[in-house]
Design goal:
The protein is an alpha+beta fold. The protein has a single domain (about 15-35, about 55-165), classed as Pnp Oxidase, Chain A. Helix content is about 15%, strand content about 40%. It has helices at about 25-30, 75-90, 95-100; strands at about 20, 30-35, 40-50, 55-65, 65-70, 110-115, 120-135, 150-155, 165.
Amino acid sequence: MAIRNQPINLNQLNVVSFETNFLRMPNINYFCQRVNIPGISLANTIQSTPFANIPIEGDVLEFEDLNITFIVDEDLKNYLELYNWLIALGFPERYAQYDNEAGKAIKSDCNIIIHTNKSNPNYSIVFKDVFPVSLGVVNFDTNNTDLEPVVVDATFKYTGIFDVNKLV
């Protein structure tokens, strides 16, 4: 019986075999270094009895945030894509800040393409109605002896659940 329980595919998921496609932020896609598939938790409730509290499964899923880390290009194009989006969503100081983004949708779809170990697209994780909620700091440091690129974190919320689709 144990032989029947063996997996068919023994290849492990490779952490560097992915690409991102943010429709609203094309300059970030190339420079994206890290992205997560958000965690999911199911809320539960407790049923009290005279002997023990019994957990009962709930009916509400809670999805964690979508987080990315990207290298900032020297012209700040990818940083400014996200910065201007946040300003337009928040409290712009003048109409031009809002108007520059008015031609673009407030929210945008994005997906993560996960590749096989042979670099073939394998799965697409699709997020609907993504919008930024935070943009990390840009650190400069004269004490740094290596020429490391500037890396920034960003956090996004999205509507509802995300879809996991097998490709081919």
